[in-house]
Amino acid sequence: MVSKNQIKLISGLHQKKQRFANQLFFAEGVKVIQELLQSNFELEHLYTTLNDFENVQSSKRTLINEQELKKISALTTPNTCLAVFKMPKETEIINSGLIVALDDIRDPGNLGTIMRLCDWFGIKQLVCSKESVDIYNPKVVQATMGSIARVNVNYVDLKTFISQTKLPVFGTFMDGDNIYQTALPKDGIIIMGNEANGISAEIEKIVTNRLTIPRFGELQKTESLNVATATAIILSEFKRNS
Fold it and tell me: For the chain, what is the total number of helices (H) and then of strands (E)?
């Protein structure tokens, strides 16, 4: 059974302010929770409607019913389990290899998908502007499908971070060089811009290499690609060339 205080705590974790005040976040679904349990994330408590997760000590596991799960879930159709984890401390930025930098990404689904892409392509470091959506947003955690446990994420002043790096800085623009005809290095920072406005003007000024993903459609009327889709193409090309 879940107590009123536990319901109040978890309900509060739906909000960024309360997540950071308590240094806690939650994840839902068997796959995501299992991934996090096998990582360096520390479990605070697990709530489940099934008699599963036998590897979790009983003092940190509570059997609840579907109605109780609905009270704490962020999903329209709740899964069978929800787990609260402690937020880990940010670790030092790995300033080598390929780094993906996000300039004001606001959509939780996009951020979660980009984290999965980083995990898939072996990108260890993701740097986010302070305006970007919080990685512990429940929708982001859900969209990562566990990749949140394997990608190092830091929130920084993006302009300062890029200005201080010695790595080449890549950004995508409509007037950039064709990515399919460009020699791409093993090391560099790849900047992906805001869903509506792209890379901001102040960040554009410090981009050293402008790239474009060319359109092949006959009418050439598609204005842009979804930022997560563009990230997939770009990472694939960088890895293919490495």
Answer: 9, 10
